[in-house]
UniProtKB/TrEMBL annotation, chains A, B:
PANTHER family: HTH-TYPE TRANSCRIPTIONAL REGULATORY PROTEIN GABR, TRANSCRIPTIONAL REGULATORY PROTEIN. It comes from the Bacteria. Residues 1-69 form the HTH gntR-type domain. Keywords: Aminotransferase, DNA-binding, Transcription, Transcription regulation, Transferase. It comes from Pseudomonas muyukensis. This is PLP-dependent aminotransferase family protein. One of its GO terms (molecular function) is transaminase activity. The keyword Protein biosynthesis does not apply. It holds the Pfam family GntR.
Amino acid sequence: MTLYFNLAELLGSRIEQGLYRPGQRLPSVRALSVEHGVSLSTVQQAYRLLEDNGLVSPRPKSGYFVAEDRLLPALPDISRPAQRPVDISQWEQVLELVRATPHPDVIQLGRGMPDVDSPTLKPLLRSLAQISRRMDMPGLYYDNIHGNAHLREQIARLMLDSGCRLGPSDLVVTTGCHEALSCSIRAVCQPGDIVAVDSPSFHGAMQTLKGLGMKALEIPTDPITGISLEALELALEQWPIKLIQITPSCNNPMGYIMPEARKKALLTLAQRYDVAILEDDVYGDLAYTYPRPRTLKSFDDDGRVLLCSSFSKTLAPGLRVGWVAPGRYLERVLHMKYISTGSTACQPQLAVADFIAEGHYQPHLRRMRSQYQRGRDLMCDWVTRYFPPGTRASRPQGGFMLWVELPESFDTLRLNRALLEQGVQIAVGSIFSASGKYRNCLRMNFAARPTAQVEAAVRKVGETALRLLDAERTGG
Amino acid sequence: MTLYFNLAELLGSRIEQGLYRPGQRLPSVRALSVEHGVSLSTVQQAYRLLEDNGLVSPRPKSGYFVAEDRLLPALPDISRPAQRPVDISQWEQVLELVRATPHPDVIQLGRGMPDVDSPTLKPLLRSLAQISRRMDMPGLYYDNIHGNAHLREQIARLMLDSGCRLGPSDLVVTTGCHEALSCSIRAVCQPGDIVAVDSPSFHGAMQTLKGLGMKALEIPTDPITGISLEALELALEQWPIKLIQITPSCNNPMGYIMPEARKKALLTLAQRYDVAILEDDVYGDLAYTYPRPRTLKSFDDDGRVLLCSSFSKTLAPGLRVGWVAPGRYLERVLHMKYISTGSTACQPQLAVADFIAEGHYQPHLRRMRSQYQRGRDLMCDWVTRYFPPGTRASRPQGGFMLWVELPESFDTLRLNRALLEQGVQIAVGSIFSASGKYRNCLRMNFAARPTAQVEAAVRKVGETALRLLDAERTGG
């Protein structure tokens, strides 16, 4: 499985990078076999995978060609949030989203739920069951406040891929990334402090700022390169910012990966103004390219980056296994972790540790990356096909979220209400802003295996939006 | 099993209440059989259980007699903490306690760990394993922010025993009682606010106040009747108190159960001064008498009591399944829960729900109550036997913690250090005070089945204390 996957990823990333252009002929099966020292059938498998992903198309007797450019929705412009610190609102809309219990009659395009049906997750379930049968019942005891030592070793090993050299004692296990975020924010900030955030930004992190009494300063953000360093620098000059909270790799909700040079420049800026950085990397392992992008943390030489992540997006959210590498804030984060939940549930920690140690994590990731990439392509196609003309959309480089921008005057809150009657749920754009901007935007999840049912749901979103827009234009 | 247990409990509570005095002859087996409509062997089983618990002793051919008064350590005096709001200290000592990883060579008398080896917990482990094998994989999904609905139904049913009429929608599931406490405090208080606490008080709750920036006002507390209402009233007159944080049933660390009349009076006081009450009931189900004591919440008619609990003491702490009934603060608590951990790990919730629904909870509690009561009796005996003369100790009515008071000048921090070298760990008294009082006190756990090894550990504590006291007296 590994060989052809690796080859497909290599070719896929060359196509994505434009080394092979749309319509161009790709190297022959024989040439690739010689070049990479793999069998002919391995190359054929790799091409078939790329074909499944819509990246190449075979022409009889001529070989494989890069697929012609798909029609893609235009990108949103760089965001223009209010450039002053604001008190965060929108809790009611977030509550509506997170109160929803999974229901077979509702397609939940709104939530940050990965696909947990993959057969590559089977060993995790096996491990969960085995732990319950062990005579020493490790799942029942209190854990050390740092979290399970075996799990922390595995996480430290995984993070080498992102350029981080961490030891198990640099890590604190948390109840999902949520707890990592709130402990980190509380370790650095006091109520009333100003936190700079990329914008749009994950609603959970923003509500955490709200709940802790911080003010958010939303920084303009580009849908391809991420937070505007120019705007950020202006803000750092103007305001006493304590913390920069950011999701630079496989951003939620936009899906961009901030280029490495900009990551380094961001860190330099933080050093110059002596500000801490909270780096949310929860989708980072789901970048469509391999090796995965480097973290800000990997460039951090004075411990100012608090790197937060979890297995909620890569494995399953119900496990609630997250972690934080808090750098110089370790002691403060430990205190915050202690008062927040005491310790983290044991059995899920042990199962995740086993899953990684037994070598199941990377094959699972490979499969999910490829599935999500295909999901993105289909979702973009559907938006082009079913959404009102002029609709813009992000171009995710990882993860499983698409950010969609409708005309300026549009209200996705109304859209969501109309959709719920039809059994479809989306995430409204306003919850991704501290001050309720992005009312004309929405976020959709493309993690689920693409079925006719999912396509029909996306179609309903587009057609309902069209109907509401028409009604608006005719004053209805 | 139920019949003889019930009878033993009834007789035991009559003895505890003094209806039968030490040395007095108890009703004959035949008389009890007729009176209660049970078989002779049921009565005999009941008497044998009471004998095991040291409450009665058989005399050949004469029947059963109430056991002669055991020599008990004297009770501590009512506590005299500093009666002004203070910033909370002692984090370093708490961290030392919670950083300790279970180790086979160390007897941890210091931690709040129940006995999880009981065969009555087997169905819980079975259920944890079964959930992992279910095809719909409920353990992997995000849960509703309130927590699993089935579990909340079961909790609502259990709480009827404490006089509470709660519906599932009145409850929020949390990651252990810790999260219930911190969400509750944050729902009511702002940083800088004053919180009145019983004293000594659970270190976790106190550290939560510290981490959230509150000040603690420690109220004198009686080792039998709990927080002094007179002192509390004075404090309420003098200070702008926002919240009363209290563990009235099976108090940690003292083990008392506040009498019902005083619970009602406390609530009246809170109403008069319009203050919220955080009621920590995490040991409440482990009262040695049945039915369990009523909660403050059960008398609350205007929603000012936030009742917090978990299954960490009754089942197992590694599950991290707690809950809160926040009364009028429900919406605020939901927000705090969301920002704290998003949602609670699913599989342990489902397993606990099954365990209760299938009828395993009450038999398990009966067994643990009886084991812990016997543990208390033995621990008190050991303190009498091995500790320095003049040592005082609490008289727990539930739970598995003993509070021990050594002479005024003694320093249990030094004792703990000396003990760690001998493979024994205690909880030092100072962590149970906001301002580091109770330096001459310690807390020991008597949950573990009483073995020679445990007795040897307690003996080491007493003998090391004696040695340090002697050295102190001779100026060493």
